[in-house]
Design brief:
Blueprint: H1 9-21, H2 52-57, H3 77-90, H4 95-107, H5 115-123, H6 127-139, H7 148-160, H8 164-176, H9 188-199, H10 206-220
Helix pairs in contact: 1-8, 1-10, 3-4, 4-5, 5-6, 6-7, 7-8, 8-9, 8-10, 9-10
Length: about 220
Amino acid sequence: MNAMFAKGSCRHLAAALLLSLATAGSWPLQVTAAEAPVVRFDPSKYSQSVTECDRMASHSEDPYRVAPGRERPEIDLPKAIEVCRAAVQADPKNPRLNYLYGRVLGYSGRGAEGLANRQVAVDADYPQSLFVIGYITLFGLNQQPQDTCKAAEMLRRSAQQERVAGQLGFPRYVLEGRFDACPVRKDTQEMLGFVAAARKQFKGDYYQGLLADMLEEDLKKRP
């Protein structure tokens, strides 16, 4: 699964994680410290005007998109690159537009050209980019440098920003032990909270519900 580029990333995440959940083992207790309250992403800090980039390249699962989403086959990539480059030049600090520019560059096999744009979106805590860039950083996809611990932080932040894929994906990767060597917080109660919050966004999706059930069961088994 590639969350930035494949259709239905959250449902694909649910299906993929269900395959391995039943084999989860035991995990060490994590000692955690108090943290500052999470500051929710505020889209009003950035222009919400619909650009041609938004019309051509918005992702259907981006909760802060301002235009209907398009899947990869629907995007005229050369044109989308052109209009998204122009949109970023006109509004260089807008995380939504930087994310979209990185998206179409990645679809075009030019992901390295969009690394700085991806980082702008991540630094602004843009929820869609936190999950997507976290995922491709975890697996080193689309010319994104692989870094497990950076990925862990981004995926947790995406969960804190209420991105469903992060709320389900981060706990699962913790349970798999992928982040055992990382300093990222791995608090069981927080992760149960992520799963509970994700349930409110499922809209009756059966597979996401199954995944949430299994994640909760395994999280409650942690010592």
